[in-house]
Write a structure and sequence with these properties.
Largest sheet: 8 strands, parallel, barrel
Structural class: alpha/beta
Oligomer: single chain
Strand content: 15-25%
Radius of gyration: 18 Å
Number of strands: 11
Helix content: 40-55%
Distance between the termini: 19 Å
CATH class: Alpha Beta
Strand order of the largest sheet: 1-2-3-4-5-8-10-11
CATH architecture: Alpha-Beta Barrel
CATH superfamily: Aldolase class I
CATH topology: TIM Barrel
Number of domains: 1
Shape: globular
């Protein structure tokens, strides 16, 4: 198995940004920004993104990116819901997969995760699982607030020991999607501390951690995109988490917002042009700026070596 990027992050006290992509343009923007910041990077796809891109196209995109990327890069399946989906992602070329059976009964979560781990490890692929349930909406993932729950530190230790999973996504108060909080944001750092004490050698992962920049939200509202009330995770929380055992921080909503700000702003100012490359390039530029900012927050700048 190749070197696991999250192990170095754990050892040296930083987190690696894991950014979702569904188009070649977004992937190129993520990589270009990571190269400029000399940071390792994780590019991830959801099940719906794989369907949108197409398996054969995605396979070639991953090959080309690995060949040309100048910093360590990992391709990761985000929120795989079944063994079959995880296997498909491994066949496509992902070197890391997430199996998310967190909404199933505990024993079912363990059994399916263990099956994925056994298969993935035989192929030299790492596995992330989730314990606890994170609320919110993202692609096909929908969890009501009433069905969410924090991760149990004691259960986390048992889960890792029984599954041999390589990293664990935990629930400490983050939320998927653009509408994370109606009131004051709060993360349970006390639970995080208990979990890291129970499993000190396991990298932890934070899902639902987009910041949802207020300036970008305001700009999209001006451009006619109705995301009134969108609110994300404060940056200070993410800085603190990345200095603890959080070694991978996911971002999807932020990427979507940045990309759309770039595209729609460019359309507004160049509405006589039919050259869509200019619009896409503007979106890519905004994504690259976002990734660079996240790299600074997570502390992974100049960690590529």
């Amino acid at each position: 198995m190749e070197k696991y990027l999250l192990k170095d992050a754990l050892k040296n006290g930083y987190a690696i940004g894991a950014f979702n992509f569904s188009t070649l343009e977004v992937l190129k923007a993520i990589i270009a920004s990571a190269e400029k910041q000399n940071s390792p990077i994780i590019a991830q796809v959801s099940e719906s993104a794989i369907s949108f891109i197409g398996e054969e196209y995605l396979k070639d995109m991953i090959k080309a990116a690995r060949k040309n990327c100048k910093v360590p890069i990992s391709f990761h399946l985000d929120h795989g819901k079944s063994f079959e989906t995880a296997k498909k992602a491994i066949d496509i070329g992902c070197d890391s997969v997430m199996i998310d059976c967190s909404m199933l009964p505990y024993e079912d979560n363990i059994n399916i995760t263990k099956k994925v781990v056994d298969y993935a490890h035989s192929k030299g692929v790492y596995v992330e699982a989730e314990l606890g349930s994170i609320a919110g909406n993202e692609d096909d993932l929908k969890v009501e607030d009433k069905n969410s729950c924090y991760t149990s530190p004691i259960q986390a230790k048992e889960f890792v020991e029984r599954t041999n999973v390589d990293s664990l996504a935990i629930a400490i108060g983050t939320k998927h999607g653009a509408y994370k909080y109606s009131g004051e944001a709060k993360l349970r750092f006390d639970i995080l501390e208990e979990i890291q004490n129970q499993i000190p050698d396991i990298p932890l992962v934070l899902h639902g951690a987009s910041g949802v920049n207020e300036v970008d939200v305001a700009r999209l509202l001006e451009l006619g995109v109705d995301i009134q009330g969108a609110k994300g995770i404060p940056e200070d929380f993410l800085r603190k988490a990345s200095k603890m055992h959080i070694c991978k921080i996911n971002g999807d909503t932020d990427v979507r917002i940045s990309y759309m700000v770039g595209i729609l702003s460019n359309i507004e100012s160049n509405n006589k042009s039919i050259d869509y490359r200019g619009y896409l390039a503007a979106g890519m530029n905004e994504v690259a700026k976002l990734v660079a900012h996240k790299i600074e927050i997570y502390g992974s700048k100049d960690k590529a070596n």
